Every structure is written in structure tokens, then in C-alpha cells.
Amino acid sequence: LAYYLTGSYWPSILAGFIFTFSNYHFAHAEGHLQLVSLEWIPLFVLCWYVVLTKPSILMAIASAATLVAVILCDYYYFFYCVLMGGLMLVWYGVQQRDFLFFLRRKHLIPLGVFVGILLITAGPLVFSLLLLNARDPLWGFHSPVKSSLDLLAPIIPGGHWYFAQLTEPFWSHLTVNIHESSVHMGISVLFVLSYVWLKRGQCRVESVRFWYCALIFFAVMSLGPVLHIWGREMPFIRLPYGWLEAVFPPLKLSGAPVRMMVMVMLSAAVICAMGFKMLLRESPGKRWLVVPLLMLLLVEYMPKPVPASQPLVPPYVRILKTIPGDGGIIDMVSRPTLALYLQTIHEKPVAFGYVARIPTSVRKEERTIKQLVRDNDYS
After folding, report:
1. Considering just the CA atoms, what is the radius of gyration of the chain in Å?
2. How many CA atoms within 13 Å lie on the side-chain side of 67?
3. pTM attached to this predicted model
4. How far apart (Å, rounded) are the C-alpha atoms in residues 80 and 111?
């Protein structure tokens, strides 16, 4: 994506480094495997950008295919890509001074192909999810107020930084855990973002202003419905995220605005590619500024080691493994997530387990069954 926009190899490699090795990415490596799979996002954005600027049926098919790949990884990312695609549509309409450009023959057929493929592939997944939630509301979503971005989090390194003990007075007071709140962008990245904005008149990338708009939009939305500063809620300052929930009620299924930072990092990475390209074209004196910037970037993006643990297998699990037959197990001793791991050892069918979102009716049934077990009413 960065190379398509800038035509410069090494600045694009640096953009890839910023996106891939961001605090956001490593913070989700401990348990959020679907959020770690963010590789399809930039590919979709690239394909969609080309569909708008150089429309063709082939690129429309590629755009739809990559967006399907996104939804097969994560529903959050699918929604964010749809938002990014919408922003691009508006941007292109402003650029062309024609908000009905998608009805012109040049764009109509490719966009029609895109929508058609998407309805056939991702459509059933989206519609069935929305229908299920309408009929039997899903339970288990996050609180958007608690799972919001703290205003200082993009500036101050979080709990997943290698030197996290230095900033513990900050991240230990945040309302959300370090796996969500570690979204530090880096002073080096913020410097390049400021540099490109000040020199935007000299930037040869036509869409530079769009990437700033996208960055600001997703940054504001990631702040959630209420502003937080140093872990403290500012209830008197209401933010636009509430409007987005009102326009699209199914967004309440997520309740984690802070995850929109993935699109902020994508936009920042693209802008940084432009910035490093401009810095490398400066005078030799200014060109050397890239060296300390890269050294600072390396330090700021160093993640803490991913912990490795040796799960202990309780004796009852080994006993269950020796019992013949395939009778079902109700495990109320181990927590649901661990029970799924233990099932790989005793290999018996289990009730409950763990799923991120479950229908309300299922939750009621589970609670009823668990209460019967507590009452020893096995009949």
C-alpha cells in the first residue's frame, strides 16, 4: 500500500515495520489471535483505493476477495474496513467534485461487481449475525466506556512495552487491561506525522490529506463515547462514538472502541512512508535525522517478551482420560477457557466451554444447568 502511493521501497519497508511491530499488534498476541491477523486490512485498502482511482472489474474482484478474507479473521476489522471504504468514497467524490461518480459507467460496473460478490460471500455471515442478535440478543460484549482509548495512550507507552515499568504509573490506572490499552504510536512516528503535515505542500502524494482525515476520524472514534485522561473519566465531554452507535446499533455488539487504533496505525504508517521519503530527499544534514528517528523507533516498539507458561493438568483430567466411553463432561472446576484446553487431554465431549458472544437464551440455559449441578439435582 505504501509503495503504491510513494513509489519508494525503503520508506515503504519502514511503514510496514510501523504497522506490523506496533504496540497494538503485540499487545493482542496474548489471547486475541483473530486481532493479530491484521494482514488483510492494508491489502483491502490498497485494492479499494485502486478500484476508485483506476476502476476495473479485476480490482473489484480483488477488493471483494480481500474484504471476505478480513471478515473470516475478525468482524471488528471488517466493520473498520467498511468505514475506511466509506471515507474513501467521500474523499474521491470531493476530489472529483462529483458525489454521484459511482453512478457513472466508469465506476458503476466495477462497483456493482464488488457489491455482488460481497453479498454472495460475506453477506450471509453479516446478515445471519444481525438476524441472530435481533431475535436472540447476544451477550458478552464489552463496555464501550471502559474499553475506550485514553487520550494519552498513543503518547505514553503501555504495559506491553519492553520498559513498561517506567510508565506503570500511567497504564496501571487505565480502565481497560494492558492487552487493549497498549496502543503507543511512538514519539518518532508522531514527529514524522507532524513533519509531513508541515511540509504537505511539498508532498507528491495526492491523497496525503485523506490519510490525515482517516487517522483523525479513527482516533476520535477510538476514544469511545466518553473522554478518558490518565484513566479518569470525563463524563461532561461526550464524543462522536455515541452517534456512530445510534446510526449503526449492531456496533454495540463490539463495545471496544480502542481497537479502532489498528486503522490509526495503518494511516500513520502510510503517512510515515511519505515522511521518510521526503526526509531522504532533504539536504545531507537533514537526511541524517532519519538515523536517530529509526533508533528511537526501534526502542519505542520493543515489546515485552511474550510469556510462556506450563499449564498444570489436574489429576481429575487424567482420570477422565482413562474412563471408557464418550459421555459428556460438565466441568465447573476449571475456568471455561482452561476447560477447553483440558478437553484436548481427556478428549471427552464438554458442555459450555468458551465463546466470545452467546445468545441470551443459551446463557439462561447454561445458568439453569449450573444451578442444577450445584443443587446436586442430576436427574
Report:
1. 24
2. 31
3. 0.93
4. 19
